[in-house]
Specification:
Blueprint (H helix, E strand, L loop, with lengths): L10 H7 L20 E6 L3 E12 L18 E13 H22 L6 H16 L17
Antiparallel strand pairs: 1-2, 2-3
């Protein structure tokens, strides 16, 4: 019979054989919450860095508040504002890569595959539309039904 009611025989011996782990204390008093939607990595011999920040689309003042069509797509600019640089050792980078890979895999199992090319496809389509409009008459041409003769 076990010395610990409700636990299997040998439970106390198993508990005594396991090495004691140090207690980890987390100090988050200096934690700053940030949002990023862009990252760039720089590999070096002894360590690496990740630059993170946000992307946004710059709209010229004269187009503010208007619907942007293909004729104005070339006037837009995508801005990358890098606000954080995280320097780390290669073992730390590998641990982060494994953690993020597992997290993304779990997310995709529930929500479906994340399409990394979607934003790039939209930008390419806008660029193609802008190029197609270059030199074209932007004013709409009257249709035969809309014309009248006096």
């Amino acid at each position: 019979m076990s010395m610990f009611p409700g636990f299997p025989q040998g439970f106390a011996q198993q508990q005594q054989q396991q090495p004691q782990q140090p207690q980890v204390q987390v100090d988050d008093s200096a934690l700053v919450h940030s949002y990023v939607n862009a990252a760039n990595v720089t590999p070096m011999a002894d360590d690496c860095s990740i630059d993170m920040g946000t992307t946004s689309v710059a709209v010229p003042p004269d187009l503010a508040g208007q619907q942007i069509g293909p004729e104005n797509a070339a006037r837009l600019a995508v801005l990358f504002r890098h606000t954080h640089r995280i320097q780390m050792t290669w073992p730390t980078a590998k641990r982060i890569a494994l953690l993020l890979g597992g997290m993304v895999q779990s997310y995709e199992a529930v929500a479906g595959e994340i399409d990394l090319e979607a934003d790039q496809k939209i930008a390419q389509a806008m660029q193609a539309m802008a190029q197609a409009q270059e030199g074209a008459d932007i004013e709409p041409k009257p249709t035969p039904e809309a014309t009248t003769t006096d």
